[in-house]
Every structure is written in structure tokens, then in C-alpha cells.
Design brief:
Layout lengths: L19 H4 L2 H6 L3 E2 L1 E6 L5 E6 L2 E6 L2 E10 L3 H9 L1 E6 L5 H9 L7 H5 L3 E2 L8 E2 L4 E12 L6 E13 L22 E4 L14 E4 L8
Antiparallel strand pairs: 1-11, 2-3, 2-6, 4-5, 5-10, 6-9, 7-8, 9-10, 11-12
């Protein structure tokens, strides 16, 4: 038997903080779809570097361009304002060892705060943009803003599309995928994923989120 859930939040879905189902859709919690975690770097209006730990995004393109499709970005955040003002941002992929460092930038993110210093990250100049990359990142995507929209027309979250201008990858993460050797990008210190508070669909409870990494199970696909 399948559990069916419609556009209205189920009555048994427990609320753990005020406004929870205004900031996030109940479908987000019901589906529990993992999404890759990364740090967006921008520059604040006062010149201080900004770090935003984020997920809910995708990366795709064709022969004419490769794009970062950044969903779920809060429209009242420093990051959103910085990207609209400058038209540029960097997506930095970092391993799980830096999870707590990234979380620190959420707790300390005032306008006058150097969020690289908060996290203990090292600034690295981008090749095509004025905002810095994270030197500790194993992969960085330098992006210029192509489009922006209010995803739900509720004024809460934005969807941004950035055209990737340039990438930088640490050499030890550059190996190809082969049998018995998934490479550093697809192991414990590679891409990390957010499992965002999945609900028990029968009881409606569930507050814990999870941090995950990839396990390659086949290389003959």
C-alpha cells in the first residue's frame, strides 16, 4: 500500500519551530530527497566575504553552457542580496570534515562579520570573478547570474541560475571513475549530502536531519 499525500499538509505532521511550513514545503519533509551540500561565497556590500552553507540545488547544461540551478535560497539573506548586487558567486564543494565550520557561518553571519575567518577558511582568488573561492574546497564553480525568480510567488525563497564560467579542482580529486576505485570525489571526503528532517509518514514525527556521503555500487553502467 502506498501513502498518498496531497497539496495540503497532513494534519499529523508535527511542527518543531514557528513558521516551519512557510519556510519549507511539507513535501520536502515527506519526500526526504538527499541534496548535495556546498558553500556559496560572495562579497557583502561592505567588502566582507560571505559564506552560505546550502543545498536544494542542481547542476546541468548542454554544449552551450553549464549552469548552477540554486533553489531554496532565502530572499532576505546576505547571499541573495550579494548575488543580485554583483551578479556573481562561487559554488564550493567541501568534504564532511568542514561541516561544523560551515555551520559556524550560519550562527555568525552579521554584515560586519568576515565569514571566512569564522569558518577558518582560506580565501583564494577566483579566475573570472571578484568574489573569493574557498581554498579548502576540492571543487569550485565560478558563476555569473543569468536569471532569478521567486519560486512560489510568496516572497520567501528564490531560484537562481548561474552560468559556470570556470572551475577549479584539487588534483587529488581529479581521477576518473573505475572499478574498485571510485576516486576521492565519491568517497568519505568527497561530496556530502543533506538529508533534511524526513518525516515518518505514518506518525508525522521526525526532526533529525542527516549528513551523508556517496557509496559507489557499480561502475559498469
Amino acid at each position: 500500500m502506498k501513502i498518498e499525500i496531497g497539496a495540503q499538509k497532513p494534519a499529523n505532521f508535527k511542527t518543531y519551530w514557528d513558521g516551519q511550513y512557510e519556510v519549507f514545503s511539507h513535501f520536502d519533509y515527506a519526500c526526504g530527497i538527499p541534496s548535495v551540500l556546498f558553500a556559496i561565497t560572495t562579497v557583502k556590500e561592505n567588502g566582507k566575504p560571505n559564506v552560505c552553507f546550502h543545498a536544494w540545488s542542481n547542476f546541468t547544461g548542454d554544449g552551450s553552457g553549464f549552469f548552477a540551478v540554486v533553489g531554496g535560497l532565502y530572499r532576505h539573506s546576505h547571499t541573495y542580496a550579494n548575488i543580485l548586487r554583483t551578479g556573481e558567486f562561487v559554488i564550493n564543494f567541501i568534504g564532511q570534515a568542514y561541516y561544523d565550520a560551515c555551520m559556524a557561518t550560519i550562527a555568525q553571519n552579521d554584515a560586519d562579520t568576515d565569514e571566512f575567518a569564522v569558518a577558518g577558511f582560506t580565501q583564494e582568488p577566483a579566475k573570472t570573478l571578484s568574489c573569493p573561492r574557498i581554498k579548502e574546497a576540492f571543487l569550485s564553480l565560478e558563476c555569473r547570474l543569468e536569471n532569478e525568480m521567486d519560486l512560489s510567488d510568496a516572497g520567501t525563497i528564490a531560484l537562481l541560475i548561474g552560468r559556470v564560467q570556470h572551475i577549479a579542482m584539487q588534483e587529488e580529486f581529479a581521477a576518473h571513475l573505475e572499478a574498485g576505485n571510485p576516486g576521492a570525489k565519491y568517497g568519505d571526503e568527497g561530496f556530502m549530502f543533506n538529508i533534511h528532517s524526513p518525516k515518518n509518514l505514518v506518525t508525522g514525527v521526525g526532526e533529525a536531519s542527516g549528513l551523508a556521503v556517496l557509496k559507489v555500487v557499480r561502475t559498469d553502467v
